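To whoever picks this up:

The nightly regression suite flagged Secreted protein as changed. Nothing in the input moved, so I suspect the structure step. Input below, exactly as stored in the fixture:
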Amino acid sequence: MASARTAARVAAAVAALPMAAVLFSGVAQADDGNQVANRGSNAAAASIVGSGVGDDNAGNSTTGQQQATGTGASNQNNTASVNGSGPTDIRQQNIEVVFAD
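Regenerated output under the current build:
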């Protein structure tokens, strides 16, 4: 009886592998929005994988992402920090600041 259960568990785990492969694979896509990137800069995409922020933290954790490519590119930096090991919920939004003359 135990071998039938073991075989069923192994079969279920093997059947779940293609779904896990689909869920854990991803494609970064850059969209220049036909805005700034059409004036000499390049569109690019960056990601932070396995940084630990937003997951289980056993202490202090900080991560940052910054990227600019090409002539005329502008820089944007998003940083997330966690202090301690409690549940972590990080929500970041980008805002636009316009300095008028």
